[in-house]
Amino acid sequence: MTLTQVQTPLLEVANLCTTFTAGGASIPAVRNVGFTLNRGEVLGLVGESGSGKSVTLRSILGLSRRYGETTGEVLWRGDNLVAMPESSLRPIRGGEIAMIFQEPMTSLNPLLTVGVQIDETLKAHTRMTASERKKRAIEMLDLVGIPAARSRLGEYPHQFSGGMRQRVMIAIALAARPKLLLADEPTTALDVTIQAQILDLILSLAKDFDMGVILVTHDLGVVAQTCDQVAVMYAGRIVEEGAVRAVLKSPQHPYTVGLMRSVPQNVPPRTPLYSIPGTPPSLLNLPQGCAFAPRCPNRSSACDQSRPELLDTGGGRALACFNKVRAGEGAAA
Amino acid sequence: MSDATVSSTQAVVRKPGRLRLALAKPGFMTGIAIIGASVVLALFPGLFAPHDPNFIDYMAVRQPPSWLHPFGTDLLGRDTFSRVIWAYSVNMQMAFLATVFALLIGVVVGALVGYYRGIADLVFGRVVDAIITFPFLVLVIAVVAVLGPGLINMYIAITLVGWVYYARLMRAEVISQKANDYASAGIVMGYSDRRIIFRHLLPNAITPIIVYWMTDMALAILLGSSLGYLGLGAQPPQAEWGVLIAEGRNFITTAWWLSLMPGIAIVLTGLGFSLIGDGLADLLRPRG
Amino acid sequence: MSETVLEIRDVSLTFRGKRGVLDVVAGRPPRDVNALNGVTLDLKRGETLGVVGESGCGKSTLARCIVRLHEPNGGEILFHGSDVFAPDQRRDRSYNRRVQMMFQDPYSSLNPRMTTSQILKEALLVHGMCGEADVPERLEKLMDLVQLPRDALEKYPHEFSGGQRQRIAIARALAVEPEVLIADELVSALDVSVQAQIVNLLLELQERLGLTILFVAHDLRLVRHVSNRVAVIYLGRIVEIGDSETLFASPSHPYSQALLSAAPSLDPDDKGSKIHLEGELPSPMDIPPGCPFHVRCRHKTPKCTAELPVLRPLEGRGAVACHHAEKI
């Protein structure tokens, strides 16, 4: 870690805010999010629905612009993507930065063959000739583990099963050899046995291509098994971040602790599970202080009055909480 | 816990009252105003018509629009403005009576075949095919030809053909609603089919039917006027827009107001129904 | 754990595929989906039986058969000894009162045009659970039971979060005082922190009301947590059934083993011993001959491709449908 510190980060996000407006009200979906990602590193963005994890991911590529306003900095090779016009973003999308989604069936065009869809990406982002592109397409399908790749180029998305479709989407996303992959719940719609295959695939491709990955998920197990770094989000903010092992072994934010303890692992069967009381706050009506305070077991008077900033706590970790949970205090065994 | 929070960013927005939103739409409000005025004119034509619609004045035949006769007079010297206003009673009645029975029959039949499917649905499918392959107007004219001209027979004819369109829409809607778990939940709760169909599915399935009804009322006025024009619907000397247009058709170059004014009334009413239909589509959509 | 409440005997269900004229001309075989292929299960009073499997394995179809949303093509389902699909039973709606189901999708399982109190009141009155005069009191009790505030009664489903809607669905099921609850992926659409709340509620209610629960889910950790016994389903057949702790601690069927090892652990260091399954679930329209799992199995032998293993008891560990269960 200390040795790699010298390399410049692949992606730097700072002060990223995305606000949607709907029906006259403005919804702060992402507030002051910041993180850095190094080459070849996998960052997990974890949180529950409405925590802003997907919006954060989409804001990196300017995909949230249509629905709201994004401010802040997304530094990519010296450029701020947030300030960039659509026309300059287009070659980056799908070329340098690729994205895969939760539901492969709706993100693939049902009317075009898989071969054509890979070819399209290559045509847009590389200067390859037709025969090179075809060769790359076969190579990609092969790489993502689709048997008989050559003959399946001419098939349509509906001819593939759910897991295979997700592989196809990865093949399309990675065809132009991007440097960063944004994965939005790529395995949520899949069964566990298939999920394991797809996650392994993403990891090994990331290693092969020396590619950074941001993986959005709600499953802490997926984070534990695939990510190097993790950022836990709640109500549009990062509340805790750091190396996966450190954060999951000794979570410091009461929300992270609660999330981990809600998972029935190493809990005596048929005993009450730990559960965080209440529900996440409405983004339209956020508490003045810490957004988690109303559900927090460690709440103090300070939490209601002011909002804790995400501060460095040493060891590459950061925390946004006034009353940090100490090791062994509440974490799952 | 007491505060309802929804689980996606989009849905977190607490929508302002649907009704207020819909009322703020100029289109919907215009529609309401037009149809509201039309209903008032239909109910109390005598209050608004300056003259007796059937008063014949041979001294004032085919007069162009003037202060005394804003829409001019016809070839018998009757005041066109008053006749157009009196026609509101007939034409609005047409809009309602020619559609409401088709709506009721269609909703019930569509809900039943959509819920039960099976042989009844197959038979229904064939009936629909048979009826919709014929142009609507041709079929209605055929039925009127058999029953004889006149308003009542026209309503019967339009209902006999028109229910199919409602039933088809309702069937599709009930089938898609039935796929929702709340319908399954009704079955699992041991509720009667009647309760599931009419208490649970129908209120959720009815929106597109109501919206279609609005456009259909506009169509019914057009159809009724067409039949009146053809001499199969309202009979002269009754003031009816189709009849009025028919009376003016031979004088379209010399006394254009005879056909144009009732024509504008048809267009305006049709527009009103369509605008309301659009507004209702927004208003009635369930939140979720 | 004594009396058997529900007996499922060799139940099978095939959904007939649509076969167009062109298919017949082209001589294509009918596309029938074999959702259930002979499932046998007992549900004992007061227990929770977990049913796990991947999507398309038939676990939800089984749940729907039990509450008579689907009718099996073969086999029978007995409730206290009487066949629930017999003509005289079918007319008897009290079965539907005594065996209740809760659904996965909290957004479609409640009628969007009815308030909570209308939904619950309907359930109470249709089954004559109480007189009209007692309804308000019963509604408040139900709200307390599922731990919702009483002002929730006058709200519509869209005003609630997913977890709150599932509480309403539970209240609706409990309104008619059932003996058996079928929970089909009850919490899988919910966030983790809310899942725990609902699971706790379910366990607490079971304790308090003596309910018998069939817990259908794909989340193994949840199933392990709530179940006394567990059945693992693969392509419409039970491949392993047994005591929850034994099954999870040492699964006997290679499919159960793979399923368990695929669930990602919360411990970043717990990466070893991954049994990775090759390939995907075969289509239920085209189930492989012999043991349906053999195409993905590491232990397959010629016997597996030829002969369908029956579910047989294995000493000290429930029942397993595998030719080689002893050796694996």
From TrEMBL, chain A:
User: Which GO molecular function annotations are given, in alphabetical order?
Assistant: ATP binding
UniProt-listed PROSITE patterns: ABC_TRANSPORTER_1, ABC_TRANSPORTER_2
Database matches in InterPro entries: AAA+_ATPase, ABC_Ni/Peptide_Import, ABC_transporter-like_ATP-bd, ABC_transporter-like_CS, Oligopep_ABC_C, P-loop_NTPase
Superkingdom of origin organism: Bacteria
Which residues does the UniProt record annotate as the domain ABC transporter? 11-260
State the annotated membrane topology for this chain: Peripheral membrane protein
Keywords (A to Z) from UniProt: ATP-binding, Cell membrane, Membrane, Nucleotide-binding, Transport
Q: Where in the cell is it found?
A: Cell inner membrane
Q: Which family does it belong to?
A: Belongs to the ABC transporter superfamily.
Write down what this protein is called.
ABC transporter ATP-binding protein
Q: Which organism is it from?
A: Roseibium sediminicola
According to the entry, what is the taxonomic lineage of the organism? Bacteria, Pseudomonadati, Pseudomonadota, Alphaproteobacteria, Hyphomicrobiales
Automatic annotation (TrEMBL), chain B:
- Annotated membrane topology: Multi-pass membrane protein
In which domain of life is the source organism classified?
Answer: Bacteria
Quote the subcellular location field of this record.
Cell membrane
What InterPro entries does the record point to? Answer: BP-dependent_transpt_permease (IPR050366), MetI-like (IPR000515), MetI-like_sf (IPR035906)
Kindly give the Gene3D superfamilies that the UniProt entry links to this protein: MetI-like (1.10.3720.10)
Which residue numbers delimit the ABC transmembrane type-1 domain? 88-277
What is an example of a Pfam family matching this protein?
Answer: BPD_transp_1
Entry keywords, A to Z: Cell membrane, Membrane, Peptide transport, Protein transport, Transmembrane, Transmembrane helix, Transport
Main subcellular localization, coarse class? membrane
Task: Report TM segments.
Answer: 28-49, 94-115, 127-146, 152-169, 209-234, 254-277
Family recorded in the similarity comment: Belongs to the binding-protein-dependent transport system permease family.
PANTHER family recorded:
D,D-DIPEPTIDE TRANSPORT SYSTEM PERMEASE PROTEIN DDPC-RELATED, OLIGOPEPTIDE TRANSPORT SYSTEM PERMEASE PROTEIN APPC
Please state what the protein is called: ABC transporter permease
Q: Which organism is it from?
A: Roseibium sediminicola
From TrEMBL, chain C:
Primary place of residence?
A: membrane
| Organism whose genome encodes this protein | Roseibium sediminicola
Q: Which family does it belong to?
A: Belongs to the ABC transporter superfamily.
What sequence ranges are listed for the domain ABC transporter?
A: 8-260
Specify whether Transport is a keyword of the entry.
yes
* Record flagged with keyword Transport: yes
Q: Which SMART domains match?
A: AAA
Q: Which NCBIfam families match?
A: oligo_HPY
Topological type in the membrane: Peripheral membrane protein
Q: What is this protein called?
A: ATP-binding cassette domain-containing protein
Looking up PANTHER family in the UniProt record yields: D,D-DIPEPTIDE TRANSPORT ATP-BINDING PROTEIN DDPF-RELATED, TRANSPORT ATP-BINDING PROTEIN
InterPro entries hit by this protein: AAA+_ATPase, ABC_transp_ATP-bind, ABC_transporter-like_ATP-bd, ABC_transporter-like_CS, Oligopep_ABC_C, P-loop_NTPase
Q: Where in the cell is it found?
A: Cell inner membrane
Q: Which Gene3D superfamilies match?
A: P-loop containing nucleotide triphosphate hydrolases
User: In terms of domain of life, where is this protein from?
Assistant: Bacteria
Recall the GO molecular function terms of this protein's record: ATP binding
UniProt keyword terms in alphabetical order? ATP-binding, Nucleotide-binding, Transport
